Amino acid sequence: MAPQHGPRRARIAFSDSAAKQLENITSEAEIHALDRALVVVSVDPDVGEPIPGSAAGPQLREYADEVERVRLLYWVTALKTVVVVAYLEV
């Protein structure tokens, strides 16, 4: 019998500005908070709320984790890659 696997997670990528934000993270608590938020959006990319905007560009979404006090701004590609635009501490 073949092993059962859970649903496939979305791939996470970072915009240049988000990558620069990540370079400045130094505390374990911040890394843990970001990791937790990234896992949530990788499991369910549609979990965030849509941010109103132009239909010409990608549909930005915002995910807020009130426990860890973190917000992610991101968009999802057609192939379900989550592109993180910004990481913010609330």
From N to C, what is the helix and strand string? EHHEEEE
* Mean pLDDT level: 85
Structural class: alpha+beta
Per the principal axes of the C-alpha atoms, what is the gross shape? globular
Number of helices: 2
Strand order of the largest sheet: 1-5-4-3-2
Per DSSP, what share of the residues sits in E-state strands of 2 or more residues? 25-35%
N-end to C-end Cα span: 46 Å
Query: Spans of 5+ residues with little confidence (pLDDT < 50)?
Result: none
User: What is the alpha-carbon Rg in Å?
Assistant: 14 Å
What percentage of residues falls in helices of 4 or more residues? 25-40%
How many strands? Answer: 5
The main β sheet shows up as: 5 strands, mixed
Name a few traits of the molecule.
90 residues, alpha+beta, five-stranded mixed beta sheet, 2 helices, 5 strands, globular
Q: What do these coordinates show?
A:
Helices cover 27% and strands 28% of the residues. It is of the alpha+beta class. A 5-stranded mixed sheet has the order 1-5-4-3-2. The model has no long low-confidence stretch (mean pLDDT 85).
